[in-house]
């Protein structure tokens, strides 16, 4: 197993990709600690993953992240793997149309994505440095390098994580700690299907027509799944990637080349 006896901390371990990550990392032998803002959400994830430990934590809050790091240190002696997968939902608003509430939401989104990743690394990575080994994998996005109208909050937050990862790779490399990114594009889900249905209704087309058109623009002619993304994270977290740091692995089925 790729992560046998590793301690893996996953932030943003709610429904969707975070939950899939927790399940597959545990199947690869990791002892998993899952963190998310909502107690019911993170406890449900932990209940689906054998041996997982749930921690309620808002990654944009200094005290919450420090408490998470302390709990991992006390229970396991520190983490071997940190996956930063927390991200806010985009509210799809053009910059010039933003109200005061929208501006506050924009700032909160960037705090979760960028500052939350920074805090998790700041408090969890020292245990890796002390041990002389470790892997951090930050889940960014295709949007970190290609912005789209109405998604500036999401793009700015993920782009910040992208370059933060480069900085951390340079800073932590001498101590044996690797830092990489996985950048998904679209991920197959009900949320994506609902968005396609809304576009179909707006254009007077069928869902099948919109989906076929979108998929035809992807080199692999399919949409990546949560498991596809999670497997890329596991690779970068494992010793198979022991000479890989400061890299970004695109997992978008050829939707965007970079």
CATH-scheme architecture of the largest domain: 3-Layer(aba) Sandwich
- Whole-number total of structural domains: 2
Corresponding CATH superfamily of the largest domain: NAD(P)-binding Rossmann-like Domain
Shape: globular
From the alpha carbons, calculate the radius of gyration and give it in angstroms. 18 Å
Report the end-to-end length measured between terminal Cα atoms: 31 Å
Average pLDDT rating? 94
Order of helices and strands: EHEHEHEHEHEHHHE
Provide structural commentary.
The protein has 258 residues and is an alpha/beta fold. The chain has two domains: 7-187 and 225-251, 3-Layer(aba) Sandwich (Rossmann fold), CATH 3.40.50; 189-222, no CATH class. The protein is 48% helix and 14% strand. It has helices at residues 17-27, 39-47, 62-76, 100-131, 152-172, 190-203, 207-216, 226-237; strands at residues 7-11, 31-36, 53-56, 81-84, 134-139, 177-184, 248-251. A seven-stranded parallel β-sheet has the order 3-2-1-4-5-6-7, with helices on both faces. Helix 1 (17-27) crosses helix 8, helix 4 packs parallel to helix 5 and helix 6 crosses helix 7 (207-216). The mean pLDDT is 94.
């Amino acid at each position: 197993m790729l992560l046998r006896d590793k301690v893996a901390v996953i932030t943003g371990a709610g429904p969707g990709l975070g939950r899939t990550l927790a399940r597959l990392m545990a199947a690869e032998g990791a002892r998993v600690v899952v963190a998310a803002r909502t107690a019911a959400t993170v406890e449900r994830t932990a209940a689906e993953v054998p041996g997982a430990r749930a921690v309620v934590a808002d990654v944009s809050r200094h005290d919450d992240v420090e408490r998470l790091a302390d709990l991992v240190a006390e229970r396991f002696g520190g983490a071997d793997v940190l996956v930063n997968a927390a991200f806010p939902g985009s509210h799809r608003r053009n910059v010039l149309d933003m109200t005061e509430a929208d501006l506050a939401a924009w700032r909160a989104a960037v705090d979760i994505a960028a500052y939350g990743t920074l805090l998790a690394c700041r408090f969890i990575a020292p245990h890796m440095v002390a041990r002389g080994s470790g892997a951090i994998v930050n889940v960014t996005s295709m949007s970190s390098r290609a912005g789209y109208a109405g998604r500036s909050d999401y793009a700015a937050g993920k782009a910040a994580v992208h370059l933060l990862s480069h900085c951390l790779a340079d800073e932590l490399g001498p101590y044996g700690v690797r830092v990489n990114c996985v950048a998904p594009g679209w991920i197959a889900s009900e949320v994506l299907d609902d968005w396609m249905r809304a576009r179909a209704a707006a254009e007077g087309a069928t869902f099948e027509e919109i989906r076929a058109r979108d998929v035809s623009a992807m080199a692999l002619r399919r949409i990546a799944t949560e498991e596809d993304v999670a497997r890329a994270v596991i690779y970068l977290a494992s010793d198979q990637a022991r000479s890989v740091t400061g890299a970004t692995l695109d997992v978008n089925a050829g939707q965007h080349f970079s």
